[in-house]
Structures are given as structure tokens and as C-alpha cells.
Design a protein that fits this description.
heterodimer; A: 135 residues; alpha/beta; 4-stranded mixed beta sheet; B: 137 residues; globular
Chain lengths: 135, 137
């Protein structure tokens, strides 16, 4: 059998749909569909993320069983820095001492430059450049 | 901006690594890493997407209907692949949820079908295997 990742569904609060719309548009993804309580985005291949509302009124923790984080790769360090600026304009700051070059995941040739943050629904995201140093 | 690759970290009980290893091997994915802390899998078709199952000892009672990831869906190339997945799950004692396997007219367009099975892993994470394309009955 041959399969691939198709899509992810995230449950979010309707009031936050605009955040995901704007974030993924900023990251260069396509807005594939929008209808009442939903935004569907994709990077331009077969994969998509469906943001659906409403979410049940419970408190989930990203360190518990389930998704810890979703990471989006960029083509440059500058793209990560631009994301940092985008987030700061919305009052969102980096977690875990990011943005930073994370030596845990770097090699002699390759960089790992990341920003980690939570969305208004406390969903953990990462935007990361993985590639040759000094880009 | 143009993005380049996606990965997911999913926290699970390490005692369940075998479930995910066997499931994703059955689904035709490659094992990218396999040690006591992390099981990494990738579909191979698009090496830019990978899923990393990481050991957690946190036992928070997360609810997939709450804020966060509701489910992860894997695309199959045929209805038969979905049916084979159903057989695989039954052989492993995994219950199919939400009246699946079934066609979903509400997610289908003209000339196409959306044929899915949904199930929960031992960590109560929701997964879907779905065929989207011309109906093959």
C-alpha cells in the first residue's frame, strides 16, 4: 500500500479563525476554502489543514497525549525573522527562548533556526529554517 | 514567502510505539527513526512531510473535540486500500468509529467519492484513512 498525509483537522474557536487565515496566508499558503466557522489552507500540494469551529470548551495540554506541535519549514532565516515580526505585530512572542539557532538540531553544515509560539487557542506551532548555514 | 516542509510531533505513551510503527508500515510509510524516545515516520511520496511520535509521561486527559488537533488523515489510493485498512484494524482489535467505513456524500463532489474509516489509537488519538476520487464500486 502507498499512502500520504492528506489533511489535519484542528478544532478552534470561531473568533480565532482570522488568525489562522492571516498566518497561513502570510506563510504563502493558499486559502482553499472558507465557509461558516471554517478555514481550509494548503501549501499548494495535496496536503491541507482544516480549521473548524467550534471547539469543545475543555482545556487541552500540548505536553499530554496528542499533537505537541506543527512545524512549518521556510526557505531562509529571513523568513523566520519575518514571521517573528508578523507575530509581534499581533502581540505574540516566541516561547522556549526562540527565535534562536537551536544547537540541538544543528550540524556543522546545517542550521536549525526556529520560532515557537502558541496560537490564541493554545496550539503550539513552529516556523523553522533547516538548511545550509548563513543564508 | 514560500514554505518548505512540514513536521508534526505527536506525544504518545512509548508503550504504544509498536502500534504506530506497525500501522504506518502497513500504510506504506518509511521508518525515519526508531529508538526508545522517538518513532519518526514519513510517507516517502513526499519526504517533506514527517510525523514524529515522541515519548511522553504526561497523562493529561486531552479531548480531541477540544481546541487542538481533532484528527490526522492519511490519503489512500483506492477504496480497496481503505477496506484493507479496516481489515487490518479489526485484526488488531481497533474499533471503527462514527459508522465508518462509509462514503461521505457531504464531502464528495460530482463524480467523486469520499470513502473513509476513522479510528482511535491506544492513546485516544483520532486517525482517518480516506480515499478521495472516482467511486470504484
Amino acid at each position: 500500500m502507498k499512502t500520504r498525509l492528506s489533511h489535519l483537522q484542528f478544532n478552534v474557536n470561531a473568533a480565532n479563525l482570522r488568525f489562522y487565515h492571516d498566518l497561513f496566508a502570510f506563510l504563502g499558503w493558499q486559502i482553499l476554502d472558507q465557509f461558516a466557522g471554517s478555514v481550509i489552507v494548503g501549501p499548494g500540494d495535496h496536503f491541507s489543514i482544516w480549521f473548524y469551529s467550534p471547539a469543545e470548551d475543555v482545556k487541552n495540554h500540548y505536553n499530554g497525549p496528542g499533537l505537541n506541535h506543527l512545524a512549518i519549514g521556510t526557505e531562509s532565516v529571513a523568513d523566520v525573522d519575518a514571521t517573528v515580526a508578523f507575530l509581534r505585530e499581533r502581540g505574540i512572542t516566541g516561547l522556549f527562548e526562540t527565535p534562536r539557532h537551536n544547537p540541538e538540531w544543528m550540524t556543522e553544515e546545517n542550521d536549525y533556526y526556529q520560532i515557537i509560539f502558541t496560537s490564541p487557542d493554545n496550539i503550539l506551532f513552529e516556523v523553522v529554517y533547516e538548511g545550509p548555514l548563513n543564508t | 514567502m514560500k514554505t518548505a516542509g512540514i513536521h508534526l510531533q505527536i506525544n504518545v505513551d512509548a508503550a504504544n510505539f509498536g502500534f504506530y510503527r506497525d500501522l504506518f508500515t502497513f500504510l506504506g510509510w518509511q521508518i525515519l527513526n526508531d529508538d526508545e524516545y522517538v518513532l519518526g515516520v514519513g510517507s516517502g511520496e513526499d519526504g517533506a512531510i514527517s510525523v514524529w511520535f515522541a515519548k511522553t509521561t504526561n497523562t493529561a486527559a486531552n479531548d480531541y473535540d477540544g481546541p487542538g488537533m481533532n484528527h490526522l488523515a492519511v490519503h489512500a489510493q483506492s477504496q480497496a486500500d481503505v477496506d484493507q485498512t479496516v481489515d487490518y484494524l479489526r485484526q488488531h482489535g481497533v474499533e471503527c468509529l462514527f459508522e465508518t467505513p462509509r462514503h461521505r456524500p457531504d464531502f464528495s463532489s460530482e463524480g467523486s467519492t469520499y470513502y473513509q474509516v476513522m479510528f482511535a489509537s491506544p492513546d485516544n488519538l483520532l486517525f482517518e484513512v480516506v480515499y478521495m476520487g472516482p467511486k470504484q464500486d
